[in-house]
Amino acid sequence: METLVHDVIRTMQSCLVSAGVRIREGSSSPDQLADLMRAARADGVRRVAEVGFHAGLSSYAFLEADPQVSVTSFDLGFHECVGPAKELIDKKFPGRHELVLGDSKTTLAEYRITGPDAGFDLAFIDGGHRLEEARSDIGNLARMCKPGATVIVDDILPDQFWGKGPSQAWEEKVEAGVVLEHARHSSEPSGDVFSDMWPRLGSYPLARCWVIGTFV
Questions:
Q1: Which pTM value belongs to this model?
Q2: Distances 199 to 57, 194, 204 between C-alpha atoms, Å
Q3: What is the CATH number of the domain that holds 125?
Q4: Is the pLDDT confidence value at 7 over 60?
Q5: 3-class SS at 104?
Q6: How far is CA 33 from CA 15, 79, 156, in A?
Q7: Can you list the positions of beta strands (E) in the chain?
């Protein structure tokens, strides 16, 4: 798995460097990408939804993990890395990736009405960090996923300003019986996987923590 994860990272790095893109926000850690790939390989997982496409690392990891998996990503689309990352994924995995652009508070609800009827088997949430955004993303995907579907939420770091919203939203959904928590995984503080493309990303080693559960 480690070799496969680093192949995913190197491929996306090469694509973005060739496109002249500079990454200005953090991305998944190798440990987290490995968790995402294992989740995509679980029995019965065919349709994956994610909030937060950014540089395409998580989408690429899901699609590389299992040739039967398809991914629908919801993203604001304002980062310059989105276009080149989407082009690479479409070339590498034709017909298996859908990108829905716009505010997920709106696009997720719209997709529930206009999208395919079958529910998602796996959801990864790494979108807006404000409480109302994280609360909306978890709530909407709970309605779009099959009962028992796996859900992974990033940035469960209540002591960090970017983690307060996702952490509180997750705890609320656990208390409300919307989700059942199974595990919390973390990475040691480290530089970002894209720090070679913008050294500032590697200048501030940060802990990472994500939660794995199921929708009830």
A1: 0.93
A2: 19, 8, 10
A3: 3.40.50.150
A4: yes
A5: helix
A6: 18, 21, 16
A7: 47-51, 70-75, 97-101, 120-125, 145-154, 179-190, 206-215
Range of the domain at 13: 2-215
Chain position carrying tokens 């989408």: 59
* pLDDT band for position 200 (cuts 50, 70, 90): low
36, two tokens:
């995402």
Measured between alpha carbons, how far is 29 from 209 in angstroms, rounded to an integer?
10
What the block records as the tokens of 212 is: 């794995």
| Residue 2 confidence (pLDDT) | 86
- Three-class secondary structure of residue 122 per DSSP: strand
pLDDT tens-place string over residues 204-216: 666 789 999 999 9
Sign of the four-CA dihedral 91, 46, 129, 108: positive
Total structural domains in the chain? 1
- Other C-beta atoms closer than 10 Å to the C-beta of 160 total 14
Question: Strand 120-125 vs strand 47-51: parallel, antiparallel, or unpaired?
Answer: parallel
